[in-house]
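User: Batch of two.

Assistant: Item 1 of 2:
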Amino acid sequence: MSEYRAPLRDMRFAMDEILDYPSHYASLPNGEESSPEMVDAIMDEAAKFAESVIAPLNSVGDEEGCQWNDGKVTTPTGFKDAYQQFVDNGWGGLLQKPEWGGQGLPISLNSIVYEMLSTANHAWSMYASLSWGAISTIEAHASEALQQLYIPNMVAGAWSGTMCLTEANSGSDLGLLKTKASPNEDGTYSISGSKIFISSGDHDFTENIIHIVLARLPDAPEGVRGISLFVVPKVQVNADGSLGEGNNVSCGSIEHKMGINGNATCVINFDGAKGHLIAQPHKGLRAMFTFINESRLGVAQQGHAHIEGSYQTAVAYSRDRLQMRAPVPQNPEKPADPIIVHADVRRMLFAQKVFAEGGRLLNYYCAQLVDIVHANQDAAVVENAETQLALLIPVAKGFLTEASLEATSNGIQVLGGHGYISEWGQEQHYRDARITAIYEGTNGIQGLDLLGRKMLGSGGKVMVPFMQEVLGFCQANSTSVYAQATEKAFNNWVALVGKLGAMAAKDPNEVNAAAYDHLMFAGYTVLAYFWAKSAVVAEQALADGSNETEFYQAKIETARFYFARILPRTDSLAAVMASGSGNLMDLSAEAF
């Protein structure tokens, strides 16, 4: 059995030594509230909560699951109590504005806390994170009156939130959704329809659940241009903020799933439930992207969380497990050597390590950009950050969740038969991670968004701000072999996009055929930048006489592994994309 330990040293390396979070926080409004001392204290306390309160519930949630009886959902043993501790200690209001009862701290700091929560217990952490997205959506698009009615109790943790998009007939193709919204004389709307796969859709944590719902008005045009957005509480809320009667919102069932069993994935039925329109009529999908974009970054963190969790277990096991002799025996006084000395085991551990530590940097960099978008007053700086996020959100979500499947599979393999049984938790990491490649738009859709809409749709302009960041680093460190390799990798990416654009101009199937492989190509290339930065900083730290020799040497050796054994995967991906769409599309559907 393994235990989660928040990797605070590596987290602080990413924050302080690579991304300069202290200067970043000082530049934000109320930056004095995010002093290094305050940030350290928050991280230390978050680590204690994640390690001691919710990590022990991870296997409990998986084994017990949620229970549905007579329309009511009961969460696993200990989940509700842990949520109350979370609320009592103020964690739910970390990033929320003080006027709503929150602490007003940076969004990125909340993201770092969420990494710990998600790694400790993915299923439990979703109850909190979905509320954050619902609050953001209401705050961004609802009237002042609706904000005052809903947000304070959501920030306080008395109420929670969800997002209700998917229907049986419309998964990622939201233009097909059928939920209806009929206007009432009092300015509200009657919402009727059923939503499926609603995470945290019903539970016993809070006295009310606030659903953010996509539905169609009677005069709605067809397709995505006819979707509106509504806030629909499970229990009606009176004008003074007190709870009224039930709102014809019910949980019809919960799904029996492959993983994240501790989170209730619900069918939610709206039978003439009273709701309020937020945002403009027929503009609901655009407004919902407030929720969706934040959720995609949250899913990137979930994927990364399973990489980290599986890696911790694999390393601990491989140091203790004695099996066979190494070519150069390491433990002659014992009957066998620990498996960590075997090259093939190290191949798998290194692959986990590069994705865990490199993925952390990518997520933290994106979180910094989100801070800038929300808080910076310079329009040009905000536009730069928004453009970088447009590029990096599908990369972070798509690439890191795919990497999580490889990493958690490696985690099982390192443990062998012990990885396949439930005792060590490795097979749970694999099962829980699998949904992340589907959440918030499958990774095929992330690939289409990145290549078709972003890269080719902008004529490559979406790459410019991030490319300037990367090439500036490479030029400033031109003697580093890692910077040189990174510059070459990014130039190869630019050339590849140009080639794909020329192919797509002749055959529209080329974008779809190349989208997934291009997404992975982009992910490997982006991570090269962060590993190059890590190596340069580590080399300088050693040159400056740091006494953390082992930590910094490990960074250099891990970067060496990445550039020698992981980044070359882009060569095969480029060859696959160059082969064209014919080998996918020429066979008739009937012949499959």
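Item 2 of 2:
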Amino acid sequence: MPIIECVPNFSEGQDLSVIKTITDAIESVSEIRLLNVDPGKATNRTVVTFVGEPEDVIEAAFRGIQKAAQVIDMSRHKGEHPRMGATDVCPLIPISGISMEETAHFAQKLARRVGDELQIPVYLYEAAAKIKGRTNLSEIRAGEYEGFFEKIKHPDWRPDFGPLEMDAKTGATVIGARDFLIAYNVNLNTTSVRRANSIAFDVRERGRVLREGDPITGKIKKDENGNPIHIPGSLKSVKAIGWFIEEYGVAQISMNLTNIRETPVHIAFDEVCKKADKRGIRVTGSELVGLLPLDCLLDAGRYFLAKQQRSLGVSNAELIKIAVKSMGLDELGPFEPEKRVIEYLLNDPKSKRLIQMNLQDFADETASESPAPGGGSIAAYLGSLGVSLATMVANLSSHKRGWDERWEEFSIWAEKGQILKQHLLNMVDEDTNAFNGIMAAFGLSNSTEEEKLVRKNAIQTATKVAIVTPFKVMQLANDSFEIIKAMAEEGNPNSVSDAGVAALCARSAVLGAFLNVKINCGSYNDKEFVADILIKGQQIVDNAISQENEILKVVYHKIE
């Protein structure tokens, strides 16, 4: 699911009722999740953070900008922070399942709507910018609200969308797409701010000024234009400074990681460790400020496991645990992923998804008088168990004594297994959702001819979903045979029986899911589609039976 974050900055930080009116407008789009509202009295500015799928996010952003234009009067605004409009800036940030280019497209779509419908001058910035020289927010905002009445008239500063003059009440706004920014602090075993700063200068992209003679007290060298010459630091897209935290009694390197694809958290941590060590200082841990995408922790977990030459094909929970312990994210206090990871915050706490049940509850739910979960969900679960067993064999093989040089070979198989496992687990709920979709369609009113037609079409649409869903289970379970066979032939010989059980599960998942495909095909009117999917389904069944037989031959040969 593509997820983007939106962090609009509104020019009101003192009147909580006005702020609540704006956030209520944002939350009127029920599909988005409001994560944070941070008002600042001195800056007279509020930063709001919410996430969701792209279309929902830009709808919520539009409503927030619209409401801000109604309740904020820029002609009366005073504050310490630079600003140019009721909604000063509104960045969109890709979180998962979406590229920066796609995110920039949504920013442009939002900007056009704000300009056209609200008649607010809009400038595009960062990745969404269409005009050279408008990527930098500070350059666009230069002159601020007071200077923009004249600035907007200059040919070089015509807005990208909206009117060519600025309304005194609403001002202008900037909309764009940018990378996720992470505030990250690394803890040191020193109280010296000067030494912490030295490390910060070593790593930050800007580096330190070049001096004559003594690197600390020497005269600053300048270029032909009179500007200080800098020695670049070792990390791109990183801003850093040293400071002392009285609360903890230690110095820290405080960093802003402005492009986590260029410098991820784990690389920043390791680089600080190296630079600190050269100066006789030890890193004792670190802390993340605010929220972060799940991939940041997963990538960190993989990075540290790879350094240990251990299999990367472990669960997300294990990857996060490795990341937290490796970077000491829990040194200054508990690190709770469910409260810090954006994707986890999106999970509905009231959700009763099947895969979140324990084994007892899942079995009880299946055995109840309710028709769902049924055979389709069980087939998907069987498939997930099969590939989980194969993944277990891969991980055991990766860590087998005497096979150290093969750790990466088995790690790759384990990673493939983890991906298939998660897809199949998701299908457990998808199959039940598909069944519920059919029941909902049958429950539609059919009093009038128009209602009968709507109901008929809804039933057909839901039926197709109920065909395609178990068919996908068949494909996923069939894909797992490659891993299972490799583990039976090449994996830890002590676990070959586990590979055999995996093959039995995968074959049962394929055949079981095909039963659901066939029973739902009987109610679907598109006979050409039905004929095609039944042929493809039978081919998958034939392959599954063949693969199972081949794997079991290997298993029996090794255990007899």
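The mean pLDDT is 92.
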